[in-house]
Amino acid sequence: MNISPRLSSSRKAVIWVVILLLFVVGIWYLLGRTPPAPEPMMRRGWGGQTSSVKVVPVEKGGLDVQVRSIGTVTPLNTVIVRSRVGGVLNKVTFTEGAEVKQGDLLAEIDPAPYRAQLEQAQGQLQQNQAQLANAEVDLNLYQGLYAEDSIARQQLDSQAALVRELKGANKSQQAQVDDARLQLSWTRIEAPISGRLGLRRVDAGNLIAANDSDGIVTITQTKPIAVMFTVPEVEVPALVKAFNGDTSLRVEALNRNEQTVIATGKLATLDNQIDTTTGTLRVRAVFENTDNELFPNQFVNVRLRLNSIDDVLTVPADAVQHGSQGSYVYVVEDSKAYIRQVTTGVVDSGRVAITEGLKPNDRVVLEGLDRLRDGRQVIVEGDVPIVGADSAQGQRPREGKNGERGEGGQRQGMPMRDGAGKGPNEAGGQRPNRDASAATPASRNN
After folding, report:
1. Residues in domain Multidrug resistance protein MdtA-like beta-barrel (predicted)?
2. Virtual CA dihedral for 404, 409, 411, 416, nearest 10 degrees?
């Protein structure tokens, strides 16, 4: 009864030893079959002493001085078409969204009341004209009689005054006729400017009032069209200098991702003061917009070219780093990266001008900056071949004479096991002879 616990513990120990041995044998077997991995060329990351980087040379060339901003497409003219007289809207002749020319008929109000007013004014004018003609005849008669000393001077003067009075009444009545004719002409609502129509705000058959605030329709001028944007205060002096030059300044309108140029125009005017709230100056550019690329109230990215600089050193903007000591770059010399303080200039299309700190053909680090320190050993991508590239690509073994493979037929880049490429008797263990296994019955009997 006291021995059974001991035996149980011993058995457990034996079982664990057997499991451990099997595990060790399995590991040894797997390691023997798996080809050893090539040792790494370098250690990457923060703890490594060597980093792989990509470099670009410092280039010398031209660079455009540009101002970038966000602008709003603004029509040069926008009109709300309103009726100048009241009445029933007989018909609407325009199509929503269509382009119209100045003077095109848009709608028509019932002209009957205004035609009647015109005829009434014209009748009153004819009556006054007849009275004036009769007074002028009497005046001529009185003048003859006065010359013969047949009437008094007072009677002649009274008749002359009556003629002048009738002439004044005729002018007043003529003005009423002109006003009635003008009121009648306003029953035809025509386009005041050329542009694109909006949505109709009133339908035919409605009774509308003169100078209604809603109007009938809006017309927006789209050809040409303007873009309003702002320029920072620090760039205003250079902008004013370029604007007052001999050539017009080109302005480009780009889409939201700044990859496509929508339209190209020119700078038209500058505001007369800087906005103290934002510290910017409002400017306006004009675009022909012949293909309707720009739409009113559309937001666009604006690129204004002020001038160009020739023979300047440039590097990609991503290569320039910023620290407490100012801007700097990493320059690769003798397979080491060194910090070089630089003075930057204008930026254009992802490249920045370097006015001080670099010279042409210096190699500047563009990728791998996060792993660099001053004086760290680096390997430039493309300068050295990558070890193990042939084996990684599964290169076929070199063939010897008569098309034979290497020793033992082993492919290059593959590790050889013990005894590989040797004869069956030279390996670690001899293989059985087929001839011996296929012996004749007579030999077996012997």
Report:
1. 224-306
2. -150
